[in-house]
Write a sequence for this structure.
């Protein structure tokens, strides 16, 4: 009888230890999951919507708004581009980054642009702004109606090297629209796809 009691006590103690161990294992994955959800990095081949806005009182007070394409946030440091000048519709590379553009013969949405598509793009453009007969831009500005419309199938390419092949971080940006509220307040909407 004493032997059966010892076996039963041992079995209960073993179950208690296993039950405690199981509870700890369950709690750890939940903590890890919470940490993973804090990252905002755009994954390679993923596309995210972005927006910048500026409240200005005159056309001379449109200040540059820095944007971190990698983390998809407005940023004054660590940004790859600035939205500046006319209605903040111009896209200009930040220090250490390079800008080019790609005119697609058929792709009308940035999600369809691939690394192969842009492999021959030269990253040697100072800024993409208003499109004219003599200047390549990524939007058309109607001075009479004061409207801005994106140039169809034209994409900004941003890399961290002066060549596509040499860039270890590469993004393609599609301008969706620039709208104004009031006289000079602006909102710039765009989509970014990360290629590298």
């Amino acid at each position: 009888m004493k032997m059966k009691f010892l076996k039963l006590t041992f079995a209960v103690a073993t179950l208690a230890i296993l039950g405690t161990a199981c509870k700890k294992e369950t709690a750890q994955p939940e903590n890890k999951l919470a940490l993973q959800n804090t990252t905002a990095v755009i994954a390679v081949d993923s596309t995210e919507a972005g927006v910048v806005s500026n409240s200005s009182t005159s056309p001379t007070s449109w200040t540059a708004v820095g944007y971190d394409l990698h983390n998809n946030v407005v940023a004054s440091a660590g940004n790859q581009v600035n939205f500046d000048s006319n209605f903040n519709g111009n896209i200009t590379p930040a220090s250490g980054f390079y800008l080019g553009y790609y005119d697609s013969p058929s792709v009308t949405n940035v999600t369809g642009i691939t690394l192969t598509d842009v492999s021959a793009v030269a990253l040697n453009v100072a800024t993409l702004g208003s499109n004219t007969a003599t200047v390549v831009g990524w939007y058309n500005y109607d001075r009479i109606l004061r409207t801005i419309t994106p140039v169809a199938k034209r994409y900004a390419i941003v890399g961290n090297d002066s060549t596509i092949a040499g860039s270890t971080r590469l993004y393609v940006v599609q301008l969706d629209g620039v709208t104004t509220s009031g006289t000079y307040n602006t909102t710039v909407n765009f989509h970014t796809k990360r290629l590298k």
Remarks:
- The helical segments are 2-36.
- Residues 63 and 84 are 6 Å apart (CA to CA).
- Confidence is low (pLDDT under 50) at residues 1-39.
